[in-house]
Amino acid sequence: MGSTHFLKGWFNMKFKIKTNLWSGIIMGAISLLMLILMPYQVRVPAYDSGAPSPRIIPGVCLVIMLVFSLVLIFQSLVLKKEKIVEFDWEKEKPAILLIALLCAYVALMITVGFIAASAIIFIIILAYCGERKPFIYIFVIAVAIGIYFLFKMVFNVSLPSGMFF
Known about the structure:
Blueprint: H1 2-11, E1 14-18, H2 19-41, H3 56-77, E2 84-88, H4 89-112, H5 114-129, H6 134-154
Antiparallel strand pairs: 1-2
C-alpha cells in the first residue's frame, strides 16, 4: 500500500524542465550513439562505383544534430539563455498514454501482424477518446485491411503478417 501511495504522489508532481539543457543533452546523446552505431548498421558497398557512400547523408545530419545539441547546452550553461517549462503529469497523461500505445502498436505489429495490431490499438485509442459510434470502429478495421491489401497487391510491399494473414 505504501508503494502505490508513493507512485500516486510521484505522478501528481509538477517539476520544471530547462528545455535548452535537456534537449541538448538528450539529442546530443542520441546523435553520438547513432554516429557510433552507424558503421555497424549502414554498410559501405564492397565495390567502388564512384557513387557517394550511403553513410554520407545520415552522417552529415547526425553531425549537424550533435553540433546544434552542443550549441543548446552552451546557451543554457554559459549564456544562461533558457526556457523553463513546467511539466505536469496530469496535463501530459494523454500524450504519454498515446506514446505508450504507439510503442505497443509496434510490438503488436511484429507479433500479431499489421491488421490485428491496427485494429486493437486504434480501437483502444478511439475508446479512450470517447468515440461511441460503431461505424467509426468498423471503418478503422476496414481501413487497416484496405491498407494491408493496398501495400501487398498494388505496391508489392509486404507488411507484417500475423496469425490470420
